[in-house]
Amino acid sequence: MAIVVTDSCDVTLTSGYQMADVSGAYSDLGQAFTSDYTGTVNKARVDIRRYGDPGGTVSLKIYDEAHVTAYGTDSLPTGAAIATSTARPVTDFAIGSYSYYEFTFDDTVSLTQGEYYFLAIDPAFVSSDLTTNYLRIGAVNTPASHDGNVGVIAYGGSWTSAALDLRFTVWVTEDNTLTVNIAASNPAYHIASPKLTP
């Protein structure tokens, strides 16, 4: 079984979202996407830059997607997370420059080809603020960079949609199972039983 990219947005960085557990920043952030393959979630990556040391960990979560107007216009997560990655300590992320960081999943949750989902960044900071200890998540504001959209939670608020896109990639372990259905009534497919000679 092959590990394949099921969706991504990898265009040039033009913007970023500040994440911190304080008023004036975003406490949660994510991107709507479409799964191009059917398979189990293997890993995902996002573009992160660290400022200072907010401490704690960061994990990624995948949700089902819901929208009111249209996918990619006001897509947001719905229900409980269907998959959660292994958490990474904030100290894994470099200070001073954006870099892609991968998060691994346990390869047990299936995504379906053509279905919409939402990839969310879920930090658990120890001590964050607006000036010295926070994360920035790489994004792009070029129109038509990706057919999904960003969703954000401003600290203390609820999910709202935004027109930007995150720089991200999601991989799945592709389901290559081949199901063959042979009609028992078709004599052309009958397999003769061997004769036993005493």
List the keywords.
eight-stranded antiparallel β-sheet, disordered C terminus, globular
How much of the residues is beta strand, in percent? over 45%
- The SSE order reads EEEEEEEEEEEEEEE
Structural class: mainly beta
**Total helical elements:** 0
Structure write-up:
With 198 residues, the chain is mostly beta strands. It has a single domain (3-189), classed as Jelly Rolls (Sandwich), CATH 2.60.120. It is 0% helix and 49% strand. Strands 1, 2, 4, 8, 9, 11, 14 and 15 form an 8-stranded antiparallel β-sheet that branches. Strands 3, 5, 6, 7, 10, 12 and 13 form a 7-stranded antiparallel β-sheet that branches. Strand 12 (150-154) and strand 13 (159-162) form a beta hairpin. The chain is globular.
What does the secondary structure layout of this molecule look like, with pairings?
Blueprint: E1 3-9, E2 15-19, E3 26-34, E4 39-51, E5 57-66, E6 76-84, E7 88-89, E8 99-104, E9 110-111, E10 116-124, E11 134-140, E12 150-154, E13 159-162, E14 165-166, E15 168-174
Antiparallel strand pairs: 1-15, 2-11, 3-10, 3-12, 4-8, 4-9, 4-11, 4-15, 5-6, 5-7, 5-10, 11-14, 12-13
Write a compact overview of the structure shown.
The protein has 198 residues and is mostly beta strands. It has strands spanning 3-9, 15-19, 26-34, 39-51, 57-66, 76-84, 88-89, 99-104, 110-111, 116-124, 134-140, 150-154, 159-162, 165-166, 168-174.
